[in-house]
Amino acid sequence: MRAKRLLFGLVFLLLPACGGDSGTGPAPAPTFENIAGTYGGVAVGLSEGVAMEAVFSLTITQSSGNLSGSWSLAGTLNDGVTVADIIGSGPLSGSIASGQNPSVNLTVTNPLCPNYQGTFSGTFDSTNNVITLNGPIDILDANCAVFLSYPSVIILTR
User: For residue range 66-75, what is the model confidence (pLDDT) as tens digits?
Assistant: First the structure.
């Protein structure tokens, strides 16, 4: 009888150590850099012999890793003979990765061309509050077709 009691006691003592997650607890919630604010930068490029020089602006609102807001672009196109003004604006949406110096992905749309979407990807520099985006700046014609595209790296400061 004493052996049974001893065996039962050993089993009872060993049970609490079985299973579970090794005591680590739940994973911490991801943390996101706060990048909400207004940013501006210069966008320049050359496409098919036409130079673009413009100011590109973003106003970003943020909810955790989700981004929304608006974009605007104002500047000129110059083919060496004619200078034409360009202007555009619209909504943006996107996401930011968790952690420090996170990746940023944005999609911009133009209300005048509802089937058009431009995409940009890049990073947020946590120390300097700078967003660096890569992606084309597309110039659309009256029929919403891209007639000039400027591969761009845009550095935007808050």
Answer: 999 999 999 9
Three-class DSSP category at 145 = coil
DSSP 99: B
Q: Where are the domains of the chain?
A: 37-157
Tell me if the pTM is above 0.85.
no
Token code pair at residue 132 = 């660096």
Per-residue model confidence (pLDDT) at position 29: 86
| Per-chain mean pLDDT for the chain | 89
Reduced to 3 states, what is the DSSP secondary structure of residue 157?
A: strand
Q: Give every CB contact of residue 152 below 8 A, 6+ residues apart in sequence.
A: 43, 45, 133, 134, 135, 136, 137
| 37-157 belongs to CATH 2.30.29 | no
Say what the pLDDT of residue 100 is. 93
**Residues 72-77: contacts with CB under 8 Å, at least 24 apart:** 73/43, 73/137, 75/43, 76/52, 77/50, 77/51, 77/52, 77/139, 77/148
Cβ neighbourhood burial of 14 (10 Å; 0-12, 13-18, 19+): exposed
